[in-house]
Design goal:
two-stranded antiparallel sheet, elongated, 6 helices, about 160 residues, mainly alpha
């Protein structure tokens, strides 16, 4: 039984469990910030969606980093390409983001929400690779774009309405 448990729950090779957990938590928090902004603005994909996307991307990255540190049999050839991970995450998130975009009668809704989901995936990838400060900066810029530019757009629309 002990052998089964030790084989099933092997320790991480490229980082400590505490480091991996910290990366996942950072991705979760930063994804939550962007998701909260979307949810507080009554957009389709909100807090939980962005948290899950960001944390999933971070987890995929941690897993990929672990795979690069796995010992392969001497006869086996292990090919490692970290760009495949980025492509896989961006494709998966793009699929989800595309589902949030609604086009009706020439009107497009959900495009910014789709873009914010894509950003959450990139933030998760950044957290997973240990580039937490880069993830924080990207989240801050993303929040600035979402909040500040929405305020500017509202102000511009109100001026246009007042001028009529």
């Amino acid at each position: 039984m002990q052998d089964l448990l030790s084989q099933t729950f092997q320790p991480l090779h490229s980082m400590s469990l505490a480091t991996a957990t910290a990366r996942l938590v950072l991705a979760l928090i930063l994804g939550a910030l962007i998701g909260w902004e979307r949810e507080s603005s009554d957009h389709e994909a909100g807090l939980r969606t962005h948290m899950m996307i960001s944390m999933a991307a971070a987890l995929f990255t941690v897993i990929a980093m672990e795979l690069t540190h796995m010992r392969a049999d001497s006869d086996a050839t292990l090919q490692i390409d970290p760009l495949r991970l980025i492509e896989a995450v961006t494709s998966g998130v793009a699929f989800l983001a595309a589902g949030s975009i609604i086009i009706t009668r020439g009107s497009v809704r959900g495009l910014t929400t789709g873009a914010s989901m894509w950003l959450a995936g990139a933030i998760g990838l950044s957290c997973g690779t240990g580039k937490g400060m880069l993830a924080v900066i990207a989240a801050a810029f993303g929040l600035m774009v979402l909040r500040l530019l929405r305020s500017l757009a509202r102000h511009k629309r109100s001026q246009a309405t007042d001028g009529k």
